């Protein structure tokens, strides 16, 4: 599933109802004949330049078979749409949004141009990456801590792994970096943050939450950690597992929170594109 789209102008947009309406102006070729297509809204995949169909732009027109959810998203459309770029099977087969690579840190990408583009996107978007990492983890990690993770990621050239593309950079950073120490960090007020807040209060032997900040309730030297792992691909969807662990003075480790989250695409722009 895609939560990004393009209209063929070289720019990527987050797929929201208002974005789609504003960028397409509700005109052909993005609005097709409703007599011909039950779901007549289309755009372009920003990664492979093939047509995508916008599902659930207005109302619950389509229901996912497995989950019953009716969230708006884009889906590759495997034939030509009048007015849009012609469908290209080769591009579709190689599209990272259609056929993602598993996060196994097993293969280095040899395409230097792609590697350099991703590196430059990271360097130009440190602040947005920090915000997106907080969004993914549910923890309001301090900028300096995230910036150090980003610096280490660049030095290690982990952006060169084939599993990384320009839409999954924050997941790649979280996956390849070591576990994050959480003592003293604040918990966000997102749905995930609320689950973490409750899990620490109910499951932790060593920590509590006060004014949304993680604090100790014992005198021993103990630490809570957050780690992101277990990348899983299921059809057009991708998932990762967020786990919060705590250790004891005897270095025993126990998991106090575990949640599989569905991944989405994030958009980053080069500085020259924002000037």
Short summary of the structure?
The chain is α+β, with helices and mostly antiparallel strands and 275 residues long. It has helices at 17-24, 89-93, 112-124, 126-137, 143-155, 169-176, 191-203, 271-274, and strands at residues 4-5, 13-14, 42-44, 51-55, 73-76, 139-140, 180-181, 186-187, 207-210, 213-216, 224-234, 237-247, 253-262. It has 2 domains: 1-99, no CATH class; 112-262, no CATH class.
Describe the structure.
With 275 residues, this protein is α+β, with helices and mostly antiparallel strands. It has two domains: 99 residues, no CATH class; 151 residues, no CATH class. It is built from eight helices and 13 strands. A four-stranded antiparallel β-sheet has the order 7-11-12-13. Strands 3-4-5 form a three-stranded antiparallel β-sheet, with no helix packed on it. It has a two-stranded antiparallel sheet with strand order 1-2. The longest helix has 13 residues. The two termini are 30 Å apart.
